[in-house]
Amino acid sequence: MRRLFAAAAVAASLAFAPLAAQAADFTIDKDHSHVVFLVDHLGYAKLMGQFTDFGGTLSFDQENVGASKLAVSIKTASIETQLAERNKHLRGADWFNATEFPEMKFVGKTFTKKDDKTGTIVGELTLLGVTKPVTLDVTFNKLGVNPLDKINSVGFSAKTSVKRSDFGMKTFLPAIGDQIDIAIEVEAKQKS
Fold first, then answer.
1. Rounded (5°) CA angle 170-126-38
2. Does residue 14 lie within any of the structural domains?
3. Separation CA 109–CA 67 (nearest Å)
């Protein structure tokens, strides 16, 4: 009987252990992920907004971070700033031009681990048909089996800043800030 319990305990620990020693492919869970931005508004405060329609995939191996992969696509028409008229204006030709450029994309190129919890992703952001290098400062949050749905999951937080003028978005400069601060929270589920 003791051997049976010991075998069951070992099997249980293996079933719930993070898959840290092997690469795995994940799909971004939109229900638990966010892409938020802040931009200076006339020097009074920073306007906060988000994109609500996005998706992507990543490949991650905690022991070989350099071999990771990341590709994300964001629907520009999904911009949300809590004001319908402003959202409509931001979707227009003066800003995101969502009709002509319905998506912005980020593709990770270089993945660097600083320590067990932090690193950088250097990649290419394409917005308004212009592609520029962007560096994300990334915090690795967790890798393991989600206790609610029993699916192996991974989570990251990332931050960066970009100049919108670098992508040709110059409307109301300098009254509306050029620097856009971006915060990203990603939870992703392993593909089966």
1. 55
2. no
3. 10
